[in-house]
Structure formats: C-alpha cells, structure tokens
Amino acid sequence: MSFLDKITDIIQSSEDKNKLIEIAYKVINNQRITKEDGIFLFEQGELGYLGVLANYIREKKHGLKTYFNRNFHIEPTNICIYSCKFCSYARKISNKQDQWEFSPEEILNKVHEYDGKPVTEVHLVGGVHPKRDLHYYGNIIKDIKKVRPDIHVKAFTAVELEFMIRKAKMSLEEGLLRLKEYGLDSIPGGGAEIFDKEIRKEICDDKASTEQWLHIHETAHKLGIPSNATILYGHIEKYKHRISHMDELRKLQDRTGMFNTFIPLKYRKENNSLEHIGEVSRLEDLKNYAVSRIFLDNIPHLKAYWPMIGKDTTQLALSFGVDDVDGTIDDSTKIYSMAGAEDKSPTITTEELVSLIKSVGKEPIERDTLYNELKVFV
Ligand code: V47
Ligand code: SF4
C-alpha cells in the first residue's frame, strides 16, 4: 500500500478529507505547510493520520535511526529572581526551604564523579540567582573544561543568559563571545515557554521576553554557537499559540539554520500554582510531537525528553516523528521531579536506553551534542 493510499484509508470517514489529503500532498512534495494547516492538523487531524504523516517525515530524514547521548545534568542553584507560575523548583533567595546552591568546588566535584566515564555532554541550567554574573558562571565553565577538555558544555537558557550578561554590564554580543571564550559550546532550549505575549504575560510575566529569547538565540547562532528550542505546552495555551510559537522558530531557523533540535516540554502540575488546570493526556503528547514534526520542516531533530513523559510514552513517540530521546541524564535534575514528572529519579544506563529503542524496532545511535554519530548499536 502506498503512503498516500494509507493516508486516504485512514481519513475515509473524515468530513475534512480533502483538506487532510491536500496537507498530505504538501508533505510528500516537500512543500511547507501554513500556519492555518498546522492549526487544522491539531483540530481535525486524527491521531493515526498524524502518526503516519509524521513518521513518513521522520523516516525520510533519519530512517529508523534514534539518537541518544551520554550526558549528565548539573543544576547549580534553584534560587531564582523570577516567579514563573508553572515552576515547581525555584525558591526566592529569602526562602530557605528546599533551597540549594552548589559552590564552584561542589560543581567541580560533581564533574569529577564522571572521571573515566564516557560521557560527552554536561547540561548546566538552573535558577536566575540575583548575585551571580557571567564571570562567575564563565569561570565554572572554564574549570569544567580544565578537568574535562573533551566534554561539550551546553549551558544556560536564554533567560539565565539575559540576566547574567546584563549583570556583567556587557552587550549581548560581548557577553556571548566572552562565554564562548570561557568554554560554552552550545545553548539549551529552555526559557522559550510560549511566545504569545498574552499567554507569556499570564504564566511568566517577569522574565526575558519573547523578543529577547529569539534575539539571544539568533545572536548566538551568528556568533557560531548552536542551540536547541523548546515549547512548554499543555497549560493555558491554545493550539493557535503552539503553532505561532513554532512559526517564530521556523522563521528564525530559515535565517540561521543553527537550531539542532526541537523539544516539546509537557507541563507537569505538581507543586506549582497552575496545578488546578491539570495535565494533558498521552494522546495529546503524541499529537503534539506529530504536528511539531510536520510543521517544523527545517529543524533536523525532534526530541522526546524521557524523564518528563516516561519511558513508555517515549517509545510510542518514536513512531510519531521523534528521533531523539536525549540521554542518560543521571540522577541530577530536579526541575521535573519536583513538578511531578514520570521519572522521579531520572537515570538510565546506556544498555537500557539501547534496549528501549530496539524493542520498538528502531536503531539506536549514540551521538554527541551536535549529532555526530559516535556509535551504532546493531
Ligand atoms: O524553560 C519548568 C521547563 C525548562 C516545568 O536543550 C517545566 O536539550 C514542565 O529547557 N512542567 C528548562 N516543564 C529545561 C529545558 C531543557 C530540558 C531538556 C533538554 C533541553 C535541551 C532543555 O523546563 C523551562 C521550562 O519550560 N519547566 N517547570 C513544569 N512544571
Ligand atoms: Fe526561575 Fe526558570 Fe523557574 Fe522561571 S522556570 S522561576 S526562570 S527557574
């Protein structure tokens, strides 16, 4: 059965058959879908149809390859000046309960725990501490690189960067270049949340704005620093806000081409002030991955962050457009465990990750942060 027959079969009974077929034709012919098409897919696309379409794109781009890396996370502090309503982990500097800050020495000790282990990436993100500037964190990166010159440092969301550069009284370009000199290799995708101004005002009013987030990533790209992008979905946003968010990313990527991967982050409700709105279903997660894969034609990879959605949904997501499952991570991230993520103690061995991927018929590939293939597991 051809791809188009399969699609036509699935949407036999749909009233919106013609529009769905038209979108499938666009995908087959490598034509970009419009924002209206994207919203239509969210509203009218049946899950089977979306899965077939997203998987078609995934296999065209990557075949059965499924990427992961060996990484660990360090969260230097949960002290934060901002008050994002969805955040379960941040504490004000005056609120000592459940608050932490690791000293530079303690951070280095954590890096030393991986001496002799084949990790390739450290992911360093945390709260926005009122007293720490670019040089404080830059020196930490420099010391990490002294200990592990081979390791890729992916550090600081645009929100953290905006503050630490401002605190150091530098321009954005100067600040990013200085961090690059200290050893920063790439920027993670956090802090994007949702770009729509009204929704952003509602859930994270006081931190770096949409314009600032986009400008920081674009400037980083121009200076040769690649990055990732995220969306926080499943709270008070509507489908049109998700599509507008992705549209901003798609336009930026057309200009720079330096986003590596898009990471949808499902809102988790425990211990934060949006708890009353609940969480979206697994089906919604799969739908969101699929539409993301179909809409974002120019971002090469789509990542399911397994500690957030759990290992089972991650396996399913591999047939809904996802080709990357992040990494071994280790038991060191609290952002999600405090918000009620599936995995309270997110660590997985390479063997487990490999078998999780293989057991759903995909091919595990160990990658580095920039998606160079390091090892194929046959
Ligand atoms: O920006 C905070 C999210 C992000 C909650 O680039 C929450 O490889 C859900 O960006 N429910 C930071 N999400 C983490 C991040 C990230 C994660 C994994 C990989 C990469 C990468 C980046 O965490 C924040 C926010 O969107 N977050 N609280 C919550 N309750
Ligand atoms: Fe601070 Fe980040 Fe939490 Fe917002 S999401 S309060 S910026 S730690």
Write structural notes for this entry.
With about 375 residues, the chain is α/β, with parallel strands linked by helices. The protein folds into 2 domains: about 5-60, no CATH class; about 65-375, TIM Barrel. The protein is about 45% helix and about 10% strand. The chain has helices spanning about 5-10, 15-30, 35-45, 45-60, 105-110, 135-145, 160-165, 170-180, 195-205, 210-220, 240-255, 280-295, 305-310, 310-315, 350-360; strands at about 65-70, 70-75, 120-125, 150-155, 225-235, 260-265, 300, 325, 365, 375. The strands form 3 sheets. Strands 8-1-9-10 form a 4-stranded mixed β-sheet, covered by helices on one side. Strands 2-3-4 form a 3-stranded parallel β-sheet, with helices on one face. Strands 5-6-7 form a 3-stranded parallel β-sheet. Strand 2 (about 70-75), helix 5 (about 105-110) and strand 3 (about 120-125) form a beta-alpha-beta unit. The structure holds ligand V47 and iron/sulfur cluster.
